Amino acid sequence: MGKRRTQRKNAAMLDSDDDNSSVTSSSTMSVSGTEELEVNKDSLLDEAVDALYEKRGSTREKALTVIIEAFNGNLQHQFVEKKFATLLHQCLNSIKKGSKKEISLASHAIGLLALTVGLGDNAREILEESITPLSQAFKSGSESSKIASLLECLAIITFVGGNDPEETEKSMQIMWQLVHPKLGSNVITVKPSAAVITAVVSAWSFLLTTMDGRGLSPKIWQGSITYLSSLLDKDDRSVRIAAGEALAVIFEVGSLEKFAAEFKGSSDGSVSEGNKSKEGYSHIQGLKGKILNQVRDLSMEAGGKGSAKKVLNDQRNLFKDVLEFLEDGYCPETSMKIGWDSLQTSTWSQLIQLNFLRHFLGGGFIKHMQENEFLKDVFGFTPKRRNLLGSEHISNSEKRIYKSPNSVINKVRTQHLNKQRMLSEGRNIGHFAVNVGDEDS
């Protein structure tokens, strides 16, 4: 009886006109005790998935918001085991038939689902089932926030579920055609906005970090360096920053000739292979020189009237790093605090992946980095063991509680530590291998 009342209450909350924050707070205020709270959260998540079948779009939007908050806040492995297929297909239905807001929310939910399941058959199923609906959704309108969400979703599900370079390259092509339609038959007549260009280039760069430059198709990507170089001259700083990051990744993965414009011989085809090779090399060196000058100028750009100081500083700092990389070969080394631990990056590919995933997960990034095995493998990150309070440093009063032989906390802590000691010897540290090509290509 109590369970039915809880379900009815949760359904009513999802169907109400209150904002999203009231959904979360209302679901937690009426319960006491951790166990009851967890049951209530699970029940609300079940009700949210059921609400995706409702006809009212606003109800589905609220349900998707609840799902996103749940997947951001905790690793929902048990829930996924029960309702993986249901959640995936209802989100895909939202992408096919929903409003712009619903499409954005459903796209984000699918990305979170992929990160939660990690490597394996489920991730592959997400990619295979989603690629067509996402491709079609790109054609249904050019609203920037919707396109950006679809791009992030495609990038994430390919990053997790793409098993071979051809699959990754297919997703990269779908993205690229949004801003460079001459590469495909589905020509978009609407000129992409700066926000769409930024989103496309960022998602494309994110997937490029997983590729070996030598495995890329030259027919697909010829001229991409020239296009990205042209973006460095655009007025929008976000576009310039995205293009600068993309160029840094291209130079890092190598095989620059595959990204440069195809060198054309004489009209009668009489140019020898030796001369063609020399002229092709000269062409690439010319591109490098042009980009180097652009990067140097952007690293020192003075702020104009009305310019946002933070974005200007971000641009200067990025292009200073790119300049040092192009001139001396040094990649920026970064360190980010994850709880009490530090996550380091030492390549452009790692940095681009970190920034993209951090932006996608938002407030859930720290939680996922600490507990998501897939992400820990991606970055080779192993958080140190913590006590039950999640910290190495506890107050004197907390120490007294822990030391009490009759303390429930002390008993649970002892069991926890014993289990951790048993497991630690067999624990292996995984590492996600990012393929890096020859920089001297």
UniProtKB/TrEMBL annotation:
Q: Where is the Interferon-related developmental regulator N-terminal domain positioned along the sequence?
A: 21-327
Pfam families the UniProt entry points to? IFRD (PF05004), IFRD_C (PF04836)
| Domain Interferon-related developmental regulator C-terminal: residue ranges | 372-424
Q: Map out region (Disordered) in residue numbers.
A: 1-35
Q: Where is the composition biased (Low complexity)?
A: 21-32
Q: Which residues form a coiled coil?
A: none
Family in the record: Belongs to the IFRD family.
Q: What is this protein called?
A: Interferon-related developmental regulator 1-like isoform X1
> What gene, per UniProt, encodes this protein?
LOC111315462
